[in-house]
Amino acid sequence: MPDLTLLAVFLPTFFFVSITPGMCMTLAMTLGMSIGFRRTLWMMVGELVGVALVAVAAVMGVASIMLNYPELFAMLKWVGGLYLCYIGINMWRSRGKMAIIEGQQTPSVSNIELISQGFFTAIANPKGWAFMVSLLPPFISVERDVAPQLVALVSIILFTELISMMAYAAGGKSLRIFLSRSDNIKWMNRIAGSLMLAVGIWLALG
Predict the structure, then answer these.
(1) Total-model pTM
(2) Rounded distance between C-alpha atoms, residue 177 and residue 173, angstroms
(3) Which own/partner pairs from 24-27 qualify as long-range (CB within 8 Å, at least 24 positions apart)?
(4) Coiled-coil stretches, from where to where (predicted)?
């Protein structure tokens, strides 16, 4: 286990960073609005797996190698970003699996697609890699076994990420309820599509 003093510093630090609006939080809010809170949990599964891989890779030194090959990141960012932009455009036009269709409770996007969205958004975020490289190593003591420390820190990271994404998804769902009272489905799709486009552009150009 990490030193308790270090944990006391790490917990509020990472929670503050996690709750700050970012790509994954914006995605959670967008999906919460378009497909509802419960379905958005599938995206969170993929995102948490991606964040865990990035965190472990940061400690193992893989992240430093990845950051030295920007062309690899460029490929991941552009592929993921273009895919999210494609979904956003379809949502804005009230088309595609993610769009809200009148008379249909939730879009028919599959759980695998949702998991994939969360996973690739997490691992294709270069700022996430850079953050893990700079944040995690100082909290790992070389005088103790690395594995237990890594498990504890990654568990804290995943917990704070989950709580933050759930808060954003719940906010998106509340916005959907507010807009649906006016039967303004077209605007719901346009708002969600615009947010999805923003995440895609953010991912590609960030």
Answers:
(1) 0.71
(2) 6
(3) 24/51, 24/118, 24/121, 24/122, 24/125, 24/161, 24/165, 25/164, 25/165, 25/168, 26/168, 26/195, 26/198, 26/199, 26/202, 27/84, 27/117, 27/118, 27/121, 27/196, 27/199
(4) none
The Cα angle at residue 177 between residues 184 and 171, in degrees rounded to 5 = 120
DSSP 8-state class, residue 138: G
pLDDT of residue 11: 77
DSSP per-residue codes, 63-112: HHHHHT-HHHHHHHHHHHHHHHHHHHHHHHTT-STTS--TT-SS----HH
- In whole angstroms, give the CA distance from residue 128 to residue 3: 24
Dist. CA 58–CA 61, nearest whole Å: 5
- How far is it, in rounded angstroms, from Cα 170 to Cα 25? 11
| Each residue's pLDDT tens digit, 54-70 | 888 877 776 566 666 66
What are 180-198's pLDDT values in tens digits? Answer: 665 566 776 777 777 777 7
pLDDT of residue 119: 94
- Cβ atoms of 71 and 186 within 8 Å: the answer is no
